[in-house]
Every structure is written in structure tokens, then in C-alpha cells.
């Protein structure tokens, strides 16, 4: 359906745009203040002996920081029994894969963690052409402790800081942030889930600028495919 909008002379368009610009500036200032509040949150110590499998073999949690003090983890939905990674998480990965090098130069390591065995992750990563670090938490408790994985058959779970009803889900998406001090102590500083990770998807932010927006109506993300699954005519 074509967007229905008034068509006006240039001066009237600039006037309307300037009014909206003031609202955008208010939003920017509010977002800056919110970011300060986020950075001011208290931390919690991470003391569990988490271990992961990656391209260089087994690593303990501290090694995932790769010599930096800050670690961003994308909780990528990929259960051991799945044939491929979640298409929505793949959409997010397309958006963060090439920025990792820039984060590295701001003392930030970014990695994805999933429950599937590392061999499955590596094969899927090759298919998608990604290069970000990706680790398997295997049979460990990491995903469960950070409330992004749930026991099969569970009817309820804690997710996004509330109790939700499950309909067969065993894994859901999220982002968690950690800090490692000079003495090697690790702290959990922030986690976001559900729409809380929305702003980390650059493609959605671009769609929000367009006349049709996300154009998802009552079927969010039903249009989405892995980037190698779209018809060639839409490439």
C-alpha cells in the first residue's frame, strides 16, 4: 500500500521538519541522560567457573575478554538440536559483524555465545560469512544463569526481568555486558532482552527513517530471511 501523505511547498516542508527536529533533539538529550544512568548502574560479581569452546579450543570466561577490560556478549539463539541459527539473531549478527574491529579499539571485545556445539556454530558462521568471535557454552549453565535459555518443556521462565509464559521456547535473545578489572575480577554490568536490543539493529534504524517504516503491521519479522535465503530479485 502506498503511503498517504500531504504534498506541500518546500517552505512548508522545512517548517514541519524543523518542528520534528526539536522533538528529535529532545529524544537525543533524553537518550544521553538514559545512557548515563545505564553506566551508573551497580555491578554484580561473576564468580561461576564458566567455560566455552571456540576457534582456539576451550577458554574460561576471563579469556573471552581477549586482553580488553570490557566484553559485550550477544546471546545468539542456536540450540543444539537446531539445523541452523535463529534467523532473527542472524539479522542482528549481520548488523554487528563488521563493527567489532571498531569496538576493539575502544577497549571492547564483542562475541556471540550459543548452546549449540562449536562445530555447528563454525559451520553456520562460514555459511553466513561472519568473522566475530563465537563460542559454545555447551552443557554449561551460562545461558541459563543469564535467563536466555530454559529447560525443555518448561511452561514459565524469567525473561526480561519478569515471568513469561513459554510456548515451547528453549532459547531467547539478549545482550549482556561485562567488565574485568586489573586484578582479573569480572562483573556483570548490564543486560537487555526483547525490544531492549532493538537499537542495536542498524537496519531497523534505517527502516525507521523511511516512509513505510518497518512495514511489519501485526506480523513482525515474518518477512525476514537469512541473508542468503532472499530471492535473487530482491538482492
Note the overall shape. Answer: globular
| Helix content estimate | 25-40%
- N- and C-termini, Cα separation: 21 Å
Order of helices and strands: HEEEEHHEHEHEEEEH
Poorly predicted runs are none
Helix and strand content put the structural class at: alpha+beta
Average pLDDT reading: 96
Radius of gyration: 20 Å
Largest sheet: 6 strands, mixed
Q: With helices defined by DSSP (H or I, 4 residues minimum), what is the helix count?
A: 6
Structure summary, number of beta strands: 10
Q: Please state how the strands of the largest beta sheet are arranged side by side.
A: 1-10-9-4-5-6
Describe this structure in words.
- The chain has 235 residues and is of the alpha+beta class.
- The chain has 6 helices and 10 strands.
- It has helices at residues 10-39, 87-96, 100-104, 118-128, 142-145, 202-207; strands spanning 44-46, 51-54, 57-60, 70-75, 108-114, 134-136, 156-159, 162-165, 174-180, 186-193.
- It has a 6-stranded mixed beta sheet with strand order 1-10-9-4-5-6.
- A hairpin with a 5-residue loop joins strand 9 and strand 10 (186-193).
- It starts with 9 loop residues before the first helix and ends in a 28-residue tail after the last helix.
- The model has no long low-confidence stretch (mean pLDDT 96).
Amino acid at each position: 500500500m502506498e503511503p498517504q501523505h500531504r504534498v506541500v511547498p518546500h517552505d512548508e516542508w522545512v517548517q514541519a521538519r524543523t518542528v520534528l527536529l526539536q522533538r528529535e533533539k529532545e529524544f537525543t538529550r533524553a537518550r544521553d541522560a538514559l545512557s548515563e544512568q545505564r553506566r551508573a548502574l551497580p555491578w554484580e560479581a561473576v564468580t561461576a567457573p564458566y567455560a566455552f569452546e571456540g576457534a582456539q579450543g576451550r577458554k574460561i570466561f576471563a579469556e573471552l575478554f581477549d586482553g580488553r577490560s570490557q566484553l559485550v556478549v550477544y546471546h545468539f539463539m542456536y540450540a543444539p538440536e537446531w539445523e541452523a541459527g535463529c534467523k532473527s539473531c542472524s539479522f542482528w549478527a549481520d548488523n554487528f559483524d563488521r563493527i567489532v574491529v571498531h569496538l576493539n579499539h575502544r577497549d571492547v571485545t564483542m562475541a556471540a555465545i550459543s548452546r549449540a556445539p562449536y562445530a555447528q556454530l563454525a559451520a553456520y558462521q562460514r555459511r553466513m560469512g561472519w568473522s566475530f568471535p563465537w563460542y559454545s557454552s555447551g552443557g554449561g549453565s551460562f545461558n541459563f544463569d543469564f535467563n536466555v535459555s530454559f529447560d525443555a518443556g518448561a511452561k514459565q521462565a524469567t525473561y526480561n526481568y519478569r515471568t513469561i509464559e513459554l510456548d515451547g521456547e528453549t532459547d531467547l535473545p539478549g545482550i549482556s555486558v561485562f567488565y574485568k578489572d586489573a586484578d582479573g575480577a569480572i562483573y556483570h554490568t548490564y543486560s537487555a532482552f526483547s525490544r531492549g536490543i532493538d537499537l542495536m539493529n542498524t537496519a531497523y534504524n534505517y527502516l525507521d527513517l523511511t516512509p513505510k517504516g518497518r512495514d511489519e503491521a501485526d506480523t513482525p519479522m515474518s518477512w525476514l530471511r537469512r541473508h542468503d535465503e532472499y530471492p535473487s530479485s530482491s538482492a
